[in-house]
């Protein structure tokens, strides 16, 4: 087997891989914690995304790992099934993605309206924000005050955690804002890494000066037992085989496979657009690579993964040239988990919550919502429907209802524009502008009912490539009754027929 990477651009790929690694650490940990999974499972997914998916992918710059878009699904699956059954769902999702790849379904994302996809991402962002607010305020998981009184909430909030959250959000905002351009070389440090470093500094300083409010052990990343390579390998775990007998596992697997595939394909398209060399990534091959990656993740205790735009764009901006950069990021993650896990435990959870709040805000940007609203109801309605249904039920149902809403507006638009009717005295023109199906029967009947007695009707179908047999039947019926009303019907290019049927005619039109 040949070596899957080229070293020709290693001078660019090694620094880019280092940058992506620094961006990936807080995201892997934060997404795992937000998903209700062990923090190490997010790191495992990042490692697999770098070492396995990058080796099999056809994309030069795409980077894979745990995604915020799957957080809601994974959290619900772990709560309902348990972590080991969720791992089995991840294995099955990988198999489904492999099938998608071999069936050449890499274009599946093209069949989902953009407004629905934006609605899916916005709903994920909103749920992510709601789920991370307690952690951002320093309230441990499951320790929300039972009372709604302000005093109870103020007492539960950790002032230091709030300071860390606000400072971290400030750094993330500054790096994204035009003002961040003035930071010069400092801006080359990834925003997430800078937020983590500053958060650790604030926390250590509070301990040093013996501040009245310090974080407790539950407010840090916890990676128990990771004190060397052997300990890391000992924490790898397999899926629960009993999950194969649970129908809920298969539904979860299908949901993960569909959403992960959509997010991967969207990320792939986005990365190709910002690739300086304008390379095209094969979508079918990417689905196969993601399938293998999720299969491996599920077998060893990792979260489901996708191609992710945040790390991929960091790779592009850092000057990455080939898949080697993604592989290097995975190798560095593996080394850090095996030998430097104790350093990761210095990270306050409030900082990771801030990173995820920032990610959630970018997914649910108010500007994007306003833009969709201004673009009209046919785009905003599917978007809003997707958001509401996901928030009320789950992600797969929300996407399905959003697609149906989009189809409704498409059919309504097509229904209104497929034909037109004009009348001047006793002369009428019924023009069919495009292919016409049985869905337009009612509108056709309404127009034909407007034709008065003793009139001359032209039916012009020159622009229609296909006419449904049901439409022929309705016109046949109209022509059969037109003799009694003294109506002359002239057909123009009607499925190859051009003729005039006077009231004395006995021959109705037949479908070809």
Q: Strand content of the residues, in percent?
A: 5-15%
Helix % is 55-70%
Number of helices: 20
One letter per element, helices H and strands E, the order comes to: HHEHHHHHHHHHEHHHHHHHEEHEHEE
Largest sheet: 5 strands, mixed
**Could you report the average pLDDT, rounded to the nearest whole number?**
85
- In order across it, which strands form the biggest sheet? 3-4-5-6-7
First-to-last CA distance: 59 Å
Report the oligomer: single chain
Compute the gyration radius: what is it?
A: 30 Å
Shape: elongated
By secondary-structure content and strand pairing, the structural class works out as: alpha/beta
What are the segments in which pLDDT stays under 50 over at least 5 consecutive residues?
none
Counting DSSP E segments of at least 2 residues, the number of strands comes to 7
Question: Notable features of this structure?
Answer:
alpha/beta, 7% strand, two-stranded antiparallel ribbon, 512 residues, 60% helix
Plain-language structure description:
This protein has 512 residues and is of the alpha/beta class. Helices cover 60% and strands 7% of the residues. The chain contains 20 helices and seven strands. The protein has helices spanning 10-34, 39-56, 71-81, 83-102, 114-136, 150-156, 159-176, 191-208, 229-234, 247-274, 283-300, 309-317, 324-339, 341-344, 349-363, 366-374, 377-392, 395-417, 441-449, 469-482; strands at 63-66, 305-308, 419-424, 427-432, 456-460, 488-494, 497-501. The strands form two sheets. Strands 3-4-5-6-7 form a five-stranded mixed sheet. It has a two-stranded antiparallel sheet with strand order 1-2. Helix 3 runs antiparallel to helix 10. The mean pLDDT is 85.
């Amino acid at each position: 087997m040949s070596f899957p990477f080229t070293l020709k651009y290693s001078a660019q790929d090694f620094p880019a891989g280092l940058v992506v690694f620094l961006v990936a650490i807080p995201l892997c940990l934060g997404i795992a914690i937000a998903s209700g999974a062990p923090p190490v499972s997010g790191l495992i997914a990042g490692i697999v995304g770098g070492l396995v998916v990058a080796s099999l992918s056809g994309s030069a710059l795409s980077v894979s790992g745990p995604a915020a878009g799957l957080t809601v699904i994974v959290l619900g699956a772990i709560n309902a099934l348990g972590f080991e059954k969720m791992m089995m769902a991840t294995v099955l999702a990988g198999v489904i993605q492999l099938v998608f790849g071999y069936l050449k379904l890499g274009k599946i994302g093209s069949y989902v309206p953009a407004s629905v996809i934006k609605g899916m991402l916005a709903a994920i962002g909103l749920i992510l924000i709601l789920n991370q607010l307690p952690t951002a305020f320093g309230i441990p998981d499951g320790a929300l005050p039972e009372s709604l009184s302000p005093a109870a909430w103020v007492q539960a909030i950790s002032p230091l955690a709030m300071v860390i959250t606000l400072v971290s959000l400030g750094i993330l905002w500054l790096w994204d804002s035009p003002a961040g351009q003035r930071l010069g070389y400092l801006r080359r440090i990834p925003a997430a890494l800078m937020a983590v470093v500053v958060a650790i500094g604030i926390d250590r300083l509070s301990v040093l000066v013996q501040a009245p409010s310090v974080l407790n052990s539950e407010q840090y990343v916890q990676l128990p037992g990771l004190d060397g390579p052997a300990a890391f390998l000992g924490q790898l775990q397999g899926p629960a085989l009993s999950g194969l007998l649970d129908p809920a596992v298969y539904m979860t697997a299908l949901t993960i496979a569909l959403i992960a595939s959509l997010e991967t394909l969207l990320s792939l398209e986005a990365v190709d657009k910002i690739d300086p060399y304008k390379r095209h990534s094969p979508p079918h091959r990417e689905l196969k690579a993601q399938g293998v990656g999720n299969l491996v993740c599920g077998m060893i205790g990792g979260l489901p993964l996708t191609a992710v735009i945040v790390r991929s764009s960091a790779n592009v901006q850092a000057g990455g040239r080939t898949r080697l950069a993604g592989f290097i990021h995975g190798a560095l993650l593996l080394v850090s988990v095996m030998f430097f896990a104790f350093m990761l435990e210095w990270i306050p959870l409030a900082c990771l919550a801030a990173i995820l709040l920032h990610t959630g805000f970018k997914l649910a940007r108010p500007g994007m919502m306003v833009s969709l609203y201004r673009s009209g109801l046919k785009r905003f309605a599917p978007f809003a429907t997707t958001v509401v249904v996901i928030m009320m039920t789950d992600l797969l149902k929300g996407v399905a209802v959003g697609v149906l809403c989009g189809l409704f507006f498409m059919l309504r638009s097509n229904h209104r524009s497929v034909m037109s009717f004009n009348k001047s005295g006793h002369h009428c023109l019924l023009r069919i502008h495009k292919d016409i199906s049985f869905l337009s029967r009612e509108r056709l009947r309404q127009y034909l009912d407007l034709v008065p007695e003793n009139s001359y009707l032209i039916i012009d179908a020159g622009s229609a490539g296909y006419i449904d047999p049901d439409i022929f039947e309705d016109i046949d019926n109209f022509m059969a009754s037109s003799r009694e009303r003294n109506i002359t019907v002239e057909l123009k290019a009607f499925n190859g027929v051009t003729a005039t049927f006077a009231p004395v005619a006995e021959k109705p039109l037949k479908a070809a």
